[in-house]
Predict the 3D structure of the following.
Amino acid sequence: FAGFQAPLWAAKDFGFLSKYGVETDLVMIPGSARGAQALLGRSIHFGQIDRTGLISAINQGADLVFVASSLNRFPFSLVAQKNIREPKDLVGKKVGIVSLGGAHEVSLILALREWNIPRASVTLLASGPAANRLIALASGALDATLLAPPETGEAARMGLSTLAHMTELKAAYFPMNAIATRRSLLEKNRQAVKRFLQAYSEGIHQFMTRKDKSLALLTQRMKQKNPAVVEETYQYFASTFSSPPRMSHEGMRAAIDMLAQRSPEIKFDTNVSKYLDERLLDELEREGFFKKMATK
């Protein structure tokens, strides 16, 4: 569990899903590919997911669509062994990421490109959850890995070095916490989707503005007993989330371009509206929902 999952936790635990009549169980599904499969298989109705896997699926005609995004920048830092002091030292090294094909891989490829390091000179290994990767890094099994709060704080306390913050990349915009649903559900039951977006939006807003409640939420959800780690996580994400939860069109176009370059044999539709439907957010904007929310 990591801090970037807080918007859904807040919507659930602060009572906003119940307030808007959305009875929901939160289920942890690691990886965007599995999340897409669960949506298509109707095991879940909404997914908080990074966009890479879904863009490819939507481009090929999958019954999926993005409707919101609460985090529009890479929330990762590249943490490395002490002997790796600058990006060029990554050549010939092993870098652990949660899985191939997701935001971790995209952010690293963009970073390597920005640093003029050939992609083939660095080995990317699918290494699972952050806790596992931190252990592997500490033991020397990995040379570097991408981490987000609270693990970045833990890494610093272990004496590991932070090589780069992905938020500082020129191409840092990337809708990480994108809310996806089935397009057929949006068309057939748009009021249910609208109520979900209202709950999601209020959860984000209260997380950002009610520090006391949010610290308690993170402590419980992350099962974290160290107050310093919880504080670091809150400070980072409370200033990073997007409210209202609109997706970065710039980030979406960058992701489409990236996928097109990786798979030149596939023709990608470059129209953002192919993947993103903002009609309900626009409707809430016109109704004054977000202005009213901001006064609470």
The longest helix spans residues 190-209.
